[in-house]
Design goal:
heterodimer; A: 750 residues; alpha+beta; seven-stranded mixed beta sheet; 26 helices; B: 262 residues; alpha/beta; nine-stranded mixed beta sheet; 5 helices; 11 strands; globular; disordered N terminus
């Protein structure tokens, strides 16, 4: 008999419990209670977010698969589809950084090959607590977490042989008790052969393939739906251990099986394991599934049906095979030394039946289980902190005496500094498609057999979103799209990972709703459909929520893989052109944080007409071969972006002169110009021949444009209206930038 | 465990000759790319041989007991059997390795890249061992190596002292050998590739992983089996940042032409 304490322990509310009793027409068995609790957890059911996510634009001429499947897909020509998605593994990574991050990589890779796509690229969006204090001393705790997470991503991705081609790493005190590990994966499939997670055809056998089931990860989905407190470190059994070798075998074997037409449907066992895969596949097919858990390969003895159904052991897949075609499928798995075990069959009655040696232990209507979770319209409330946080009195700020020094200091900020220490631990070249290396801009992978390439970027800024959630959502869309445009690629699809605090708190829910609106608005304005994603709520520790952090993953298409642009000035004697307004704003900027220790003000808003025109201009100009490099002005503003164009260029400096709207003696105009942040600004280098045409096209499209200087020399110099205001040697800039992050992890060079 | 000393067979010379492409009137050279479970640079080697070099290439599954009449055997990079044991330690027991052993014994050219190099060491084709990188981290980056010997089938189209920019991607590439083995490798001119700086100077600074004597690749005494940690197959097209790895494949194509094997 189920008592109240058991129901509470499963995280079900009184109303949810009443509902499941109604569905069953009786009290649940303990196995059924477990099944409902994971399927109706926030993590699996999206019960708090679902009604908001409906506002995303999900359609477009290229969309082959929108939200609802294991991953989204867009048409990239030549009969091929790009299949991609981003997912979070925040909570497990805090409890066990290496395995948490590793299994996050494993999970998203399975989502991609489940769709019939060969995974070809990974990116990561990572956020941790402060890396250094105000005196520059390392935070041991952050160093430990970063080291573990990066090693976990490397350990899994490198072994399975999928290159990690890009990503972002940011540090803010608010992530100290709740780091964010968001992993993006992209694969390529034949557009007309996308596999689906559907169980159809009564009588078709249901196969279990891959690793054996253990007790690891039981209630992982429930854990991901609760806040952390001091006892959370005791949650280790809820974290899974990854086996990339097993997944490599599964990946190859599943892709080989998909070459036949013996497969009806396939789904990975991720969150909520066997429970989620069986009921979702049946619900999509309008069918039922009847399985016997005693046939499930088990790693431990004495496992109960409850444990088997809820285990989140990694590297397992569920397949529905056409009846009569079993030998073909078994033969492929046999080749890869994998056991494909028939655990049940598809039925026509819409019920998930779970047996244990024939004895019925659960019998639940699949549709109600998969799609019948309550959908909450959680109350929202304008957060109390916001008005105060948005107030910024620039005139109260001291102006740095030595702007060149401030410039170098910003280049050394961990959020801006080179991430080489991170990406060199990732195999970013395996599969020989990486034509845009990490650290140079968006990650770019060519599609062999076509002349095309895909540019990929994941972006978000928690500070912006905390100061203005709606604008933070808009800015994330604009920046991710702008980054792929800077590689020369036209944005064609997006996925997002929405990392927020406890949705039961109205101020958090308000942040969420606002950010969703901002993302929806941005994607609509730029014509980029959202084909799926992930929501991670309850990112709180001891009642302290993270910055609201929407992360956008944007996929861009380059028609000519040979025309990949990077941030780097390729030669001296080129014209430097600024597309967009010279000045940004200080609200929410890295400058304000780094130099004044403030997270205040409002981030500069996006004008999407201008943003769209700018991106069109850059993609088009790149296609016509007019550009030699392109780099957007992001954290640290114009000055940092300009220095980054010279860093790693082999010593190609630049000297530029900007008109100052506010006059050269306006000290805040000066700071806004050098370090202010704003969207819709790109620094490009062009030849004289390309310049004329670029200027003409920019004017046609209404994009502000100015030839601001030339490349050359071994310094980077910024003048305002003819007066030099900041000047650094490339060598000094490179040193600051190269060591800012690495110095916390590497012993000083002997 | 002491390894048996490799036979001090007769030296086979592989003189340089211009590379050929398929369709030039001669039969293309056929590469067998061995696939162990966990190999993940198999497709890259295939792509380089087939589409960049214009030769023939076939995958050979590790359970097979023939080499499909290949002219060249490639043991590709990856994490065979997950590398949960010593890298390459299980792959050497795969059925196909017996055929590879026979193939090498008749003088057939065999190259092991990265994990393939580790397999060749475990299987006793080559001498030495690969330890964890000095920095204890997996390292993926471009490095420079200097060609030290050109009388192997995988370096004969290069010139001595030629500097190649090649990527590495490994956690265990720190070459090590007992002092007497290292001395023998040097005395017998078995060090084929050495880490160096961009100018070709062999200094500690160019050594990414702590390898003894800056060793990036070695051959057996007969000189037909070569193992190296850098990935020449990842450096065959300018779009990937370097074309310097082509010379490794062009060498073996030239060597096959010269020996008349193809």
């Amino acid at each position: 008999m189920i008592d109240q304490a058991t129901i509470d322990a499963h995280g079900l509310t009184a109303g949810e419990y009443r509902r499941l009793v109604e569905i069953l027409g009786r009290a649940p068995t303990i196995t059924e209670l477990g099944i409902f609790s994971v399927m109706w957890s926030e993590h699996c059911s999206y019960k708090s977010s679902r009604r908001h996510l409906r506002r995303f634009p999900t359609d477009g001429p290229r969309v082959l698969q929108g939200p609802g499947e294991n991953a989204g897909a867009v048409d990239i020509g030549d009969g091929l589809a790009a299949v991609f998605k981003i997912e979070s593994h925040n909570h497990p990574s805090f409890i066990e950084p290496y395995q948490g991050a590793a299994t996050g990589v494993g999970g998203i890779i399975r989502d991609i090959f489940t769709m019939g796509a060969r995974p070809i690229a990974l990116l990561d969006s990572l956020r941790f607590g402060a890396l250094e204090d105000e005196h520059g001393r390392s935070s041991v705790e952050t160093v430990r977490l970063v080291d573990g997470v990066v090693a976990g991503i490397a350990g899994y991705g490198n072994s399975i042989g999928i290159p990690t081609v890009g990503g972002e790493v940011a540090f803010e005190p608010g992530y100290a008790g709740n780091p964010l590990v968001n992993v993006f994966c992209l694969g390529v499939a034949k557009a007309d052969r996308l596999a689906k997670g559907v169980a159809s055809g009564a009588g078709n056998p249901v196969y279990y393939v891959g690793a054996r089931t253990g007790r690891d990860g039981i209630h992982g989905a429930t854990m991901a739906s609760a806040e952390f407190d001091e006892g959370s470190a005791d949650n280790r059994p809820a974290v899974q251990v990854g086996d990339p070798f097993m997944e490599k075998l599964l990946l190859e074997a599943c892709l080989e099986v998909m070459q036949t037409d013996a497969l009806v449907g396939i789904q990975d066992m991720g969150a909520a394991g066997l429970t989620c895969s069986t009921c979702e596949m049946a619900a999509r097919g309008g069918t039922g599934i009847d399985i016997d858990v005693s046939r499930v390969p088990q790693r431990e003895t004495g496992m109960t049906p409850y444990e088997i159904m809820l285990s989140e052991s990694q590297e397992r897949m569920l397949l529905v095979v056409r009846r009569g075609r079993e030998p073909e499928v078994e033969q492929v798995f046999d080749k890869w030394d994998l056991h494909a075990v028939r655990i049940g069959e598809v039925t026509g009655d819409g019920l998930l039946r779970v047996r244990d040696r024939g004895r019925m232990v659960a019998e639940i209507p699949t549709r109600e289980l998969a799609d019948g979770a309550p959908v909450y319209d959680r109350p929202t409330r304008y957060p109390a902190y916001l008005d105060e946080a948005q107030r910024l009195d620039e005139s109260a700020l001291p102006v740095p005496a030595d702007l060149a020094r401030t410039w170098l200091d910003l280049l050394a900020a961990p959020a801006i500094a080179s991430k080489r220490w991170v990406y060199r631990q990732y195999d970013h070249m395996v599969r020989t498609n990486t034509v845009g290396l990490p650290g140079l801009g968006a990650g770019v992978v060519r599609i062999k057999g076509t002349g095309r390439a895909l540019a990929l970027s994941v972006d978000g800024n928690g500070r912006y979103a905390w100061l203005d959630p709606r604008e933070g959502g808009r800015l994330a869309v604009a920046e991710a799209a702008r980054n792929v445009a800077c590689a020369g690629a036209a944005p064609i699809g997006a996925t997002n990972c929405l990392n927020f605090g406890n949705p039961e708190r109205p101020d958090i829910m308000w942040q969420f709703a606002e950010a969703v609106d901002g993302i929806a608005e941005g994607c609509r304005a730029l014509g980029i459909p959202i084909t799926g994603g992930n929501v991670s709520l309850y990112n709180e520790t001891d009642g302290q929520a993270i910055y609201p952090t929407p992360v956008l993953g944007v996929v861009g298409l380059l028609d000519d893989a040979a025309r990949v642009l990077t941030r780097i000035f390729p030669a001296a004697g080129l014209d430097v052109v600024l597309l967009g307004d010279p000045a940004g704003g200080l609200g929410g900027s890295e400058y304000l944080k780094r130099v004044h220790g403030l997270v205040r003000g409002r981030p500069a808003p996006v004008d999407f007409d201008r943003e769209a025109a700018l991106q069109r201009l850059v993609v088009d100009a790149s296609r016509r071969g007019m550009l030699c490099s392109a780099h957007d002005c992001a954290e640290g503003g114009f000055a940092v972006a300009l220095a980054e164009c010279s860093i790693e260029s082999g010593g190609v400096g630049a000297s530029v002169d900007l008109p100052v709207l506010a006059g050269p003696n306006d000290r805040f105009g000066l700071l806004r110009t050098l370090f202010g942040e704003a969207p819709s600004r790109i620094i490009v280098s062009v030849t004289r021949a390309g310049q004329t045409e670029l200027l003409a096209r920019a004017r046609d499209l209404g994009v502000p444009v100015a030839v601001i200087g030339r490349t050359g020399g071994d310094r980077v110099t910024v003048s305002l209206s003819g007066r030099v205001v900041a000047d650094v040697a490339i060598e000094a800039a490179e040193h600051a930038w190269a060591t800012g992050l690495a110095r916390h992890f590497e012993p000083p060079a002997a | 465990m002491a390894r048996s000393r490799p036979e001090a067979g007769r030296a086979v010379r592989f003189p340089p000759a211009p590379p050929r492409r398929a369709g030039a009137g001669m039969r293309p050279v056929k590469f067998a790319i061995i696939q162990f479970p966990g190999s993940n640079c198999d497709h890259d080697a295939y792509h380089a041989a087939r589409y960049v070099l214009g030769q023939q290439a076939e995958f050979v599954w590790h359970k097979e007991t023939g080499l499909r009449s290949a002219d060249v055997v490639v043991l590709p990079g990856g994490f065979s059997y997950g590398d949960y044991l010593r890298t390459g330690a299980i792959a050497r027991f795969s059925p196909v390795m017996q055929r590879v052993r026979e193939f090498a014994a008749t003088g057939g050219p065999v190259i092991g890249i990265c994990n393939g190099f580790q397999v060749l060491l475990e299987a006793g084709f080559l001498e030495g061992a690969l330890l964890r990188n000095r920095g204890l981290k997996f390292l993926c980056r471009h490095v420079h190596v200097r060609v030290e010997q050109t009388d192997t089938p995988f370096s004969c189209a290069a010139s001595v002292g030629q500097v190649l920019k090649l990527p590495i991607a490994h956690g265990e590439g720190n070459f090590h050998a007992a002092p007497e083995t290292a001395a023998a490798l040097e005395a017998n001119r078995q060090v084929v590739f050495r880490y160096c700086d961009a100018a070709g100077t062999v200094t500690g600074g160019g050594n990414p992983n702590g390898s003894l004597h800056e060793i990036a690749g070695v051959c057996n005494r007969r000189r037909n089996v070569v193992g190296l940690m850098p990935h020449p197959e990842r450096a065959c097209e300018s779009a990937l940042g370097s074309e310097d790895g082509r010379v490794v494949f062009e060498s073996v194509v030239a060597a096959m032409a010269a020996t008349g094997a193809a």
